[in-house]
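Section 3.1 - Work completed
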Amino acid sequence: MISFEKLIGLQVITSAAEILGEVKGANIDTKDWQVTELLVKLSSMAAEELNMKKRLGSSVVTIPVSVVQAVSHVVSLSKSVKDLENSREIIEYKE
């Protein structure tokens, strides 16, 4: 188990060893207190590949925890950027 504070700021790495971005937060289901999605600030490369590049600032997306393979000093995903783009599992986060 990892504390929420340690999760914030971790790099998110895809199955193809691409840097997707950095964890900025999480969505939590308050019914059962489970993390359902990670909020990830995309790297420039990932934002470009996913067609989410903004002129000012950076894109934040939600990634379902079902795609998370492991969490240690980084968050490892079970899919590549291309897989995520094709599956439409990530959604642009809007507050």
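Second construct:
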Amino acid sequence: MADRSVAGVNQYVVPRTRAWLSEEELAAALDCVPAVNETLRGKIRWVRSYIVSGDDGTFSAFCVYEASGPDVLMEHAESLGLPTDSINRVVRTVGPA
């Protein structure tokens, strides 16, 4: 198991339930991500997002970031108008060697 803390930067998982109500909304939001990421360059690094579809046709996400703290992640979410269910610091990762 690896510790994810690195010199003042932590890794976080941010769940976003029903962030988009349609595929069109999802596509429009993804178009905005590069501009917002540029604005926050040096404060946050988006690692990846896992987008999942709900039975009701909406889309949720589990987003993984590296950031100095939760405040930067809230600024990012507000810039994109994204819901933020919680901000969870990763304390360990596990997986195949």
